[in-house]
Amino acid sequence: MANAYISGTGFYVPPQVVTNDDLVKKYGIETSHEWIVQRTGIEERRFAAEGVGTAELGEHAARAALAAAGLQATDIDMILFATLSPNYAFPGSGVLLQRRLGVAEGDNPRLIPAMDIRNQCSGFLYGLYTANAMVRSGAAKHVLLVGAETHSAALDLTTRGRTVSSLFGDGAGAVVVSATDEERGIQGVHLGADGRHAEVLCQKVWDITKRPFVPLDDEGRGLVEPDHLWAQMDGRKVFRHAVMAMSGALVDACTHASLELGDIDLFVFHQANLRINQYLADQLGIPPEKAVHNIQRYGNTTAATIPILLAESVASGKLKPGMTVGLAAFGSGFTWGSSIIKW
Ligand code: ACO
Fold it and tell me: What is the mean pLDDT of the chain?
């Protein structure tokens, strides 16, 4: 059985920087740079321009990852697209990315499968689990895995929504998962979920138990109440569960790989909140210099945080072949996951 390794990484963030002060001055939100930095570590985030959607952000990241892997889009056997902010309710952004990459065009069209992964902040790890299984089983030689989000279109950028809207930003990261006979690569991916907390962090938009699913006005236009339109979150509950689940998942990943936490050279955690990650590192005795962060610059980009960090770490030379990397994420669902990769 082949091993699966990450043969290329890439990322893209839109050019518009929105600082914490911009939230106050441009959007009129009653908040402050100090409040946001103290509780989350976030200093600024990126917002995509009107007209730009999640598949487009994902395309930029995907093309960078393919170039880094030395591959053409037509070499890919499958697309996995992790997002909680797809372009449409359906179809998923995976098929839109496939169209953007042009693989179905020309004399030798490749109508490769494209699957959306709907596991929020754990979406990248759920995708990595799937990509690893597809490559190791021999069903695919190269899987393109993208995590991308356009949060800015669906944030309540008013004082009412500040607890959630100050946290999120737009961006995309991508990896190519490829087969290799070498003794390296993904050492396993460990996933978990606890649906008892499904509504603790949730954006309903509609309720499919209702007839019709969105109430209508007299002219037949849909009416969505603010608490359905915007994400709702019990932040303190998320914080507590995130620390517990991510530390448990990391320890599990080490046990399965017959490693100690101290054997891991670099930790790449989901970027929900700098405080969550510092607390997690303290609990597990992880030295600060072994963990990378970018939440200060991008906020929480949900499914994109880990692949963006991987791509940035490769580009900066912090992540080099031969190193052992530990990944962990937690998010809405609740869902969580971890992985150890011999890079
Ligand atoms: N600026 C100023 N004041 C604010 C802001 C803001 N951006 N947001 C909330 N407040 C106010 C609230 O209105 C509240 O005011 P009140 O006491 O007058 O009612 C007060 O601050 C305290 O609100 P809490 O929600 O209790 O604030 P808390 O200290 O819990 O911090 C936070 C909120 C930062 C969200 C924290 O709970 C947290 O970090 N939770 C983790 C959740 C998380 O990171 N989610 C990310 C997405 S999930 C994921 O990716 C895993």
Answer: 97
- Predicted confidence (pLDDT) at residue 1 exceeds the cutoff of 80: no
Report the separation in Å between the CA atom of 287 and the middle of ligand 1, taken as the mean of its atom positions. 27
Q: Tell me how far the alpha carbon of residue 338 lies from the centroid of ligand 1, in angstroms.
A: 26
Distance CA 109, CA 88 (A): 25
Query: Relative to the CA of 120, which ligand 1 atom is closest?
Result: 50
Phi and psi at 172, nearest 5°, equal -150, 145
Q: Strand ranges (DSSP E) for the chain?
A: 3-12, 17-19, 44-46, 78-82, 114-117, 142-149, 171-180, 185-193, 201-202, 232-233, 266-269, 291-292, 324-331, 335-342
| Residue 203 DSSP SS3 | coil
Ligand 1 atom at shortest distance from the alpha carbon of 121: 50
Task: State phi, psi for 33 to the nearest 5 degrees.
Answer: -55, -45
Residue 36 has pLDDT above 80, yes or no: yes
Please report the pLDDT score of residue 18 as a whole number: 98
Q: What is the pLDDT of residue 319?
A: 98
Give residue-wise pLDDT tens across range 118-131. Answer: 999 999 999 999 99
Pairing of strands 201-202, 78-82: unpaired
Segment 297-326 shows an average pLDDT of: 98
User: Do the beta carbons of residue 251 and residue 328 sit within 8 Å?
Assistant: no
CA-closest residue to ligand 1 atom 35 = 235
**Residue nearest (by alpha carbon) to ligand 1 atom 13:** 163
Query: CA-CA distance, 74 to 51, in Å (whole number)?
Result: 27
Does this model's pTM top 0.90?
yes
Answer whether 238 contacts ligand 1 (Cβ < 6 A).
Answer: yes
Active-site amino acid positions? 121, 270, 300
Mutate to test the pocket of ligand 1, among 125, 158, 160, 163 (most ligand atoms within 8 A of CB): 163
Domains and CATH numbers, the chain: 3-183 (3.40.47.10), 186-199+230-342 (3.40.47.10)
